[in-house]
């Protein structure tokens, strides 16, 4: 006779003797008879099908599986399904109840970014859903991630330097008590590069690779890339040309035939200015000045 017992299995990560395990916990029904439980662990395959990786029979209201980097790796989504039965009537089992999928590995929040060439900084958080073990004879309970960027252009083919800049090339994930699906976290900022080119919206990606770890679990793991779409914004331009005619950012036109050193442009919000030097360049009928030097900060 199949019945539902509201076992409500939940997966949580835990360090057991310095190694990463997943724990399946479920509610013990208020049955007077002693119950046994069958816990079946499975993971999602690359094709989206569930593969069984371990089966346990226990009297306890929990069961463990180790993340050993072989049959259970970082990057896997893991499930546990629990069935209960009494010792006297093993053929009468409850309906199997399955946990929600637990993603074991690194997560980026947000998973993808849409930013613009506006100089703003956008925060990207990276977190580990599993606890970080200390290597033997080493107190550094951290994972160091090497970050890199790549331009995918408009058609996902690399076209040159990336359209984004990161605030750090490496981040450290330091071990912390697990809470709300995070056992370690770090943050960095992403900014779109103002490239002075009308090159349309471009796609870049951020790649993270764990470095310096000897254990198989982290060494063989490459997290998913973060896709960053950069919205192209028109860039202001100003000009000083020939004997100098000047066109300002807002389109006004001036002439400046004088000889000397001039402040051409200065920002009121940041440390940016451009100076020009104009010398006589041999006007036949009247004095003519030309740009002969420029200094920019």
TrEMBL record:
GO molecular function: signaling receptor binding
Entry superkingdom: Eukaryota
PROSITE patterns registered for this protein in UniProt: VWFD
Alphabetical list of Pfam families matching this protein: Ig_VWDE (PF25776)
Keywords: Disulfide bond, Signal
GO cellular component terms listed in the entry, alphabetical order: cell surface; extracellular region
UniProt key word Acyltransferase: no
UniProt cross-references to InterPro entries, sorted A to Z: Dev_Signal_Modulators, Ig_VWDE, VWF_type-D
PANTHER family: EGF-LIKE-DOMAIN, MULTIPLE 7, 8, VON WILLEBRAND FACTOR D AND EGF DOMAIN-CONTAINING PROTEIN
Name used for this protein in its record: VWDE protein
Species of provenance: Anhinga anhinga (Anhinga)
């Amino acid at each position: 006779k199949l019945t539902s017992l509201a076992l409500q299995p939940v997966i949580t990560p835990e360090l057991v003797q310095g190694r990463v395990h997943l724990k399946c916990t479920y509610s013990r029904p208020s049955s007077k008879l002693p119950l046994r439980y069958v816990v079946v662990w499975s993971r999602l395959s690359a094709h989206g099908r569930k593969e069984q990786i371990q089966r346990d029979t226990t009297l306890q209201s929990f069961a463990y599986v180790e993340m050993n980097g072989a049959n259970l790796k970082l990057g896997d989504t893991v499930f546990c399904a629990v069935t209960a039965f009494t010792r006297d009537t093993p053929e009468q089992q409850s309906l199997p109840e399955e946990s929600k999928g637990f993603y074991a590995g690194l997560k980026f929040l947000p998973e993808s970014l849409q930013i613009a060439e506006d100089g703003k900084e956008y925060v990207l958080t990276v977190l580990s859903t599993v606890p970080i073990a200390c290597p033997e004879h080493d107190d550094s309970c951290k994972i160091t991630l090497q970050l890199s960027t790549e331009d995918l252009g408009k058609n996902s083919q690399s076209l040159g330097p990336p359209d984004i800049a990161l605030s750090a090339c490496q981040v450290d994930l330091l071990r912390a008590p697990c809470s709300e699906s995070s056992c370690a976290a770090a943050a960095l900022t992403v900014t779109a590069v103002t490239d002075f080119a009308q090159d349309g919206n471009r796609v870049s990606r951020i790649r993270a690779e764990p470095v310096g770890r000897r254990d198989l679990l982290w060494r063989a793991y490459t997290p998913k890339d973060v896709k960053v779409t950069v919205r192209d914004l028109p860039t202001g331009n100003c000009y000083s040309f020939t004997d100098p005619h000047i066109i300002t950012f807002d389109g006004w036109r001036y002439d400046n035939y004088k000889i000397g050193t001039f402040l051409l442009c200065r920002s009121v919000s940041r440390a940016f200015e451009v100076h020009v030097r104009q010398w006589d360049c041999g006007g036949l009928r009247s004095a003519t000045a030309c740009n002969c030097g420029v200094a920019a900060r």
